[in-house]
Write a structure and sequence with these properties.
The protein is of the alpha/beta class. The protein has a domain of about 200 residues: 3-Layer(aba) Sandwich (Rossmann fold). The protein is about 40% helix and about 15% strand. The strands form four sheets. Strands 3-2-1-4-5-6-11 form a seven-stranded parallel sheet, with helices on both faces. Strands 7-10 form a two-stranded parallel ribbon. Strands 8-13 form a two-stranded parallel ribbon. The protein is globular. The structure holds NADP nicotinamide-adenine-dinucleotide phosphate (NAP) and guanosine-5'-diphosphate-alpha-D-mannose. The site of NADP nicotinamide-adenine-dinucleotide phosphate has 25 residues, from helix 1 and strand 5.
Length: about 325
Amino acid sequence: MPVALVTGITGQDGSYLAEHLLAQGYRVIGVSRRTSTDVGSRIEHIRADIEVASADLLDQTSLLTLVQRYQPDEVYNLAAQSFVPTSWAQPVLTGEFTALGVTRLLEAVRVAAPEARFYQASSSEMFGKVQEVPQTERTPFYPRSPYGVSKLYGHWITVNYRESYGMHACSGILFNHESERRGLEFVTRKISYGVALISHGARRELRLGNLDAERDWGHAADYVRAMHMMLQRDSPRDYVISTGETHSVREFAELAFRCAGLDWEEFVQVDPTLKRPAEVDQLVGDPRLANEELGWRPTITFPQLVERMVESDLAIVRDEMARGVIRREEPGSRFPG
Ligand code: NAP
Ligand code: GDD
């Protein structure tokens, strides 16, 4: 039974990747840092099928001990401080997790399991102020946030360990991918959950920042398949993973409200305080190399993604209201983003 070590197991991608690897017959070791409250809701349904080990990207010894103990065949580094606005509020911590954390894990693998195959979760945020459209594996990077800069460090250190030590290490340059399990602070989930609250009469408005930003949005379940495919190649290589389509935040909101039978213009308010110090205006990836060499293709379309997220949140909010977790017109907000 091959052994896969997955950091960031409690996150959106960690949960989908664990499901995928279990279905492929892997022994899955999920890595989680110590927290005072339970962060395991996304993996509750597979908790009996995976093992969860404790380690932190900030702590070199914990990572080395982990790799020594489990001797993984494949290591997927999904852990990161992944929310762009937080990277301006906490730039040094973001660099520690998202940039240097990659070196710590690579060092642990180099020393304790050098034959293991290594996947780094790189990001389309590295393209930032884009230098060409669409973005490919050869497009120059121009990150626009401390998060983007940190991811770029993680990307290049992975390339360097591959070239310096001959490790089977590669990066997936993944464009935005969302799901019913997306964190509430990211714009797609903020919208789908907001639509559900409004539809059930629990809120009257949804405050958003830049409606003109455009993203290449896919579904996380499709994107974790690409991670696994990349590590099955004999020679490691980096790939862009995207749908090849781009849509604005406005389009996402319009469609999401329509799914609930509502007109978005009656409820969405633009809040300038939610705009970013530097924006990534438009992202659109060219997934041809992944199509040709990995045989990877997304299966869930943009309208299907929006519909799935809204349907899921309508059910979640209905349940939360039935249990009294949220009430109609309750003051305050659950939206930090
Ligand atoms: P996510 O939901 O925010 O999950 C991040 C995970 O990282 C969580 O499990 C979190 O654990 C863990 N983590 C954070 N700091 C850690 C630390 N110091 N030590 C150990 N674990 C730590 O992110 P996601 O959407 O699943 O994304 C997965 C990865 O892909 C991230 O690296 C992200 O930057 C990258 N990425 C995402 C996208 C996207 O659109 N989703 C696109 C490109 C790249 P806690 O539960 O304890 O906080
Ligand atoms: N979060 C948020 N909240 N974003 C908003 C809002 C709002 O109220 N209003 C408009 N936006 C815009 C942002 O300005 C940005 O242009 C876009 O919506 C998407 O924002 P997010 O959903 O927060 O995602 P992101 O694109 O910044 O980053 C995500 O994708 C990256 C890949 O490109 C994250 O998952 C990163 O971890 C990932 O690397």
